[in-house]
UniProtKB/TrEMBL annotation:
Gene3D superfamilies: Vaccinia Virus protein VP39. Keywords: Methyltransferase, Restriction system, S-adenosyl-L-methionine, Transferase. One of its GO terms (molecular function) is DNA (cytosine-5-)-methyltransferase activity. The active site is at residue 82. PROSITE patterns: C5_MTASE_1, SAM_MT_C5. InterPro entries: C5-MTase (IPR050750), C5_DNA_meth_AS (IPR018117), C5_MeTfrase (IPR001525), SAM-dependent_MTases_sf (IPR029063). The lineage of its organism: Bacteria, Bacillati, Actinomycetota, Actinomycetes, Micrococcales. It catalyses: a 2'-deoxycytidine in DNA + S-adenosyl-L-methionine = a 5-methyl-2'-deoxycytidine in DNA + S-adenosyl-L-homocysteine + H(+). This is Cytosine-specific methyltransferase. Its EC number is 2.1.1.37. Belongs to the class I-like SAM-binding methyltransferase superfamily. C5-methyltransferase family. GO terms for biological process: methylation.
Length: 457
């Protein structure tokens, strides 16, 4: 297919796998500059797009260097680092010395080069970070450059891609946004089948321990009576048979006072007695979520989950007790002892679902969407149940299938599966960007070179 005529020039900051590049190229854009610090992705970007990216944006350390090294362009795109604003991290924000202040590098480039439009992407938590102050600072800084700014949250599943992965998008224009409208949602249902490759070959087997844990929770589902509504909250099997205190006092509080005898008469994980044990011995029998030093008082949400799990067990112990005796989940790692059923009302056959091993437990989702891609380790790659995998057995999704979830199926990926999964977890979804950029750039009038800053006029 012929390349569309060039309508505008764009730059791609913190480029990663090039999701912004794919989207804007499809709309007739020409990439004229990219920046990516990770060496493997830097090399791969040049292979995929013919642009050798700038490595460290911090070396663009003055207005003069920016003006000299970055070509004039009409559109700036940037998925600036999200870790400082993510719920999964410490949420240090702009105070993160390595990454948190990289937004201001984007600001510097906008200030010097004056592109007519920009699209920025980050985790949705950036909108709540520091009570909304972080997002307010970003918008105020951008508006101070003369841009009209709008912010919206969007996910690939809203555009027909079977992945729920909400992200915050900031768009801006020097020409105003009166004609811009955020894209409308895709109205039809999605299916994981749309991204699966019929000839896919998993590059590695699922570990035996993981398969045992899946079998264990599959048996839990099959034993559960149809009349019993499965919990919407995380199932913590270590709370089954447990009786240790968690409301008026906690095990860490007893340990802090050097009084392990306060736990005599109570039971820890799976009902193992705490009687006449040392603090060290008791620690091994208390769930990790209840045994952290300093947890003198558990937060309300944790108390609620413990209470709900114990009540669920007591109400259903007739079928849960035999399940515990058969599988002995205490012999498995803590993450396998927990289960998240994200398929309320769905068929109770674990092989009809998409699974993911997380620190919070094994999560089962309906096959309409895949788990949100994150910067994954090999253990977090989505697992397809045997009945939906197209191979007749459970398998990991391949990097190529995960690329389809990010609308990046046409580019070459890192050779290492682990690097590919990590890069895809950090990537921006090309379909979502394309849907945003199409109306944003429809009336784009390319800027004159070196347009003056409004504050300097």
């Amino acid at each position: 297919m012929d390349q569309p005529a060039v309508r505008f020039r764009f730059i791609d900051l913190f480029a990663g796998l090039g999701g912004f590049h794919v989207a804007l190229r499809d709309l007739g854009g020409q990439g004229v500059f990219a920046a990516e610090w990770e060496p493997t992705l830097n090399t791969l970007y040049e292979h995929n797009f013919g642009i050798s990216p700038w490595s460290d944006v911090n070396e663009l350390d003055s207005d003069e260097v920016i003006a000299q090294m970055i070509p004039d362009h009409d559109v700036l795109t940037a998925g600036f680092p999200c870790q400082p604003f993510s719920k999964a991290g410490e949420q240090l924000g702009f105070e993160h010395t390595l990454q948190g202040r990289l937004f201001f590098k984007v600001f510097d480039i906008l200030s010097v080069k004056r592109p007519r439009r920009f699209i920025l992407e980050n985790v949705p938590n950036i909108l709540q970070h520091r009570g909304g102050q972080t997002a307010a600072t970003i918008v105020a800084k951008l508006e101070g450059l003369g841009y009209e700014v709008q912010v919206h949250r969007l996910s690939p599943h809203q555009f027909g891609i079977p992945q729920v992965r909400e992200r915050a998008y900031f768009v801006g224009s020097l020409d105003g946004l009166n004609a811009f409208e955020w894209p409308t949602e895709f109205e039809e249902s999605t299916s994981i089948a749309s991204v699966l490759h019929p000839d896919a070959q998993a590059s590695r087997d699922i570990p035996e321990q993981t398969l045992r844990a899946i079998d264990m929770w599959g048996d839990f589902l099959s034993r559960s009576p149809a009349t019993v509504k499965l919990p919407w909250f995380p199932i913590w099997s270590m709370e089954f048979r447990a009786t240790y205190p968690f409301e008026t006092t906690t095990p860490p509080k007893s340990w802090a006072r050097r009084r392990p005898r306060e736990l005599d008469g109570f039971a820890g994980s799976f009902g193992f007695p705490l009687e006449r044990l040392s603090i060290r011995e008791q620690r091994r029998l208390i769930p990790s979520h209840s045994g952290r030093d300093g947890d003198i008082e558990f937060p309300v949400w944790k108390q609620k989950f413990i209470r709900q799990n114990r009540e669920f067990f007591l109400t259903n112990r007739k079928w849960i007790e035999p399940w515990l005796d058969k599988w002995q989940p205490w012999e498995l790692p803590s993450s396998f002892q927990k289960f998240e059923w994200n398929a309320q009302g769905g068929v109770r056959d674990i092989d009809e679902h998409v699974l993911q091993v997380r620190a919070s437990g094994i999560r089962a989702k309906r096959p309409v969407t895949a788990p949100s891609l994150i910067a994954m380790t090999n253990t977090q790659v989505p697992i397809l149940g045997a009945n939906i995998s197209r191979t007749g057995k459970r398998r990991y999704m391949t990097p190529e299938e995960c690329a389809e979830l990010q609308s990046l199926g046409g580019i070459e990926l890192p050779e290492s599966d682990l690097q590919a999964y990590k890069a895809l977890g950090n990537a921006v979804n090309a379909s979502v960007v394309r849907a945003i950029a199409h109306p944003l750039l429809a009336d784009l009038r390319p800027a004159k070179k070196n347009a003056a800053h409004p504050q300097a006029a």
